[in-house]
């Protein structure tokens, strides 16, 4: 499929052929959902922890008689039902990561790119480079392209362009190797450079 290439000043800078096997698929929500769940689960810290009965400080002395109190039989006050006692079956540090085959992850990335292309939210520019790291200059350029919330992907992040986007709300920049399903889907638009298109096609073939 053919796509127009624009300059950062929103002027036509030629056209490019996009691989139908990467940008022309019918997006499948189930595959995209599986990959997003995989990514979000993997980045959870899993450091939540509560003290259990054996970790609470306190005496283990039996505080009441076994019989004759008219109440239940208790050993010590570290039991979960007492105030200050341990938590029963509380959370422990663990990994929340789930497994997802590499081929499914690659397919999900193809469907994410295809969904942006199908919805008209894919913008291709010739290059993402700036002479100086001025955020205001970048804001003016992106406003010409009608971009306010987007993910910009390049083969490698230009130093000045990367610094300019760092202070810009709603706009993120990633190299080709860092392009992922979650970041693509959570932004309104996807901006790819010609080098990024070539890099993604090489990565996903």
- Overall shape: elongated
Q: What is the number of strand segments?
A: 6
Intertermini distance? 16 Å
Q: Give the full name of the CATH homologous superfamily of the largest domain.
A: Ribosomal protein L4/L1
The CATH topology of the largest domain is given as Ribosomal Protein L4, Chain: A
Low-confidence stretches: none
Task: Briefly note the structural class of the backbone.
Answer: alpha/beta
Q: Characterize the biggest β-sheet.
A: 4 strands, parallel
Which CATH-level-2 architecture of the largest domain? 3-Layer(aba) Sandwich
Query: Tally the helices: what do you get?
Result: 7
Order of helices and strands: EEHHHEHEHEHEH
Q: Describe the strand arrangement of the main beta sheet, using strand numbers.
A: 3-6-4-5
- Helix coverage percent of residues? 25-40%
- Beta fraction of the residues? 5-15%
Q: What gyration radius follows from the Cα positions, in whole Å?
A: 27 Å
Mean model confidence by pLDDT = 93
* Total domain modules: 2
Broad CATH class of the largest domain: Alpha Beta
Family: Belongs to the universal ribosomal protein uL4 family.
Subunit structure: Part of the 50S ribosomal subunit.
Protein name: Large ribosomal subunit protein uL4
GO biological process, one term: translation
């Amino acid at each position: 499929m053919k796509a127009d290439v624009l300059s950062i000043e929103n002027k036509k800078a030629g056209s490019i052929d996009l691989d139908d096997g990467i940008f022309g698929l019918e997006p499948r929500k189930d595959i995209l959902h599986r990959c997003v769940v995989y990514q979000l689960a993997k980045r959870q810290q899993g450091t939540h922890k509560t003290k259990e009965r054996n970790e609470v400080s306190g005496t283990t002395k039996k505080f009441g008689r076994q019989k004759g109190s008219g109440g239940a039989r208790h050993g010590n006050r570290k039991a979960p039902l007492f105030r200050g006692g341990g938590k029963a079956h509380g959370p422990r540090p663990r990994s929340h990561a789930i497994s997802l085959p590499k081929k499914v992850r690659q397919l999900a990335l193809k469907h994410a790119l295809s969904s942006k292309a199908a919805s008209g939210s894919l913008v291709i520019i010739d290059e993402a480079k700036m002479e100086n790291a001025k955020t205001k200059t970048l804001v003016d350029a992106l406003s010409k392209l009608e971009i306010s919330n987007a993910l910009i992907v390049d083969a490698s992040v230009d130093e000045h362009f990367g610094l300019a986007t760092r202070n810009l709300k709603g706009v993120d920049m990633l190299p080709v190797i860092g392009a992922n399903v979650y970041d693509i889907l959570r932004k309104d638009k996807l901006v790819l450079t010609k080098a990024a298109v070539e890099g993604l096609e090489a990565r996903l073939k």
